[in-house]
Amino acid sequence: MEWHFGHTPRVELDEQLAKFIRARRGEKNYEEFGRLIGCSGSTVHRLENRNQNFTRELLNKLKQTFRCTLADIFPHEFNGHNGNGTRPVRLQRPLAAFPAACSGTAESSARAAGSTFGAAE
Q: Which of 28, 54, 63, 102 is most exposed, with the fewest beta carbons within 10 Å of its own?
């Protein structure tokens, strides 16, 4: 079973992640950037070209390395629907399927807005 945020298909999430990686990699080659985030250069290349699925472990490494949130990695998913720069996130699979990558900010924002995690629409 494939998961996604809200109504965003996985392929669009892959594109948002690829843009994030390209922007953060800058002038570093694939190997240098891979060492920075704890994976191989070939993995970075495949992620940028959307030829490899990302994992929650990778998202955690990116969040830790760049001190960012899921909203920074997936900006189209947090585009101001609450009027405060975030919108509730509805996961199509239970939160347990994606626990480590969910930042407290996204989770608390969704709960504060009355959204429920793990509920299919």
A: 28
The sign of the torsion formed by the CA atoms of 63, 52, 118, 5 equals positive
pLDDT digits (tens, 9 = 90+) for 55-93: 999 999 999 999 999 999 988 877 644 334 444 444 444
Neighbouring-strand partners of residue 91: 5
**Contact at 8 Å (CB) between 21 and 52?**
no
d(CA 14, CA 116): 24
For the chain, domains (ranges, CATH) are 10-112 (1.10.260.40)
Map residue 103 onto helix, strand or coil.
coil
SS3 content of the chain, % helix, strand, coil (to 5): 50, 0, 45
What's the burial of 69, exposed, middle or buried (CB within 10 Å: 0-12/13-18/19+)? middle
State if pTM tops 0.70: no
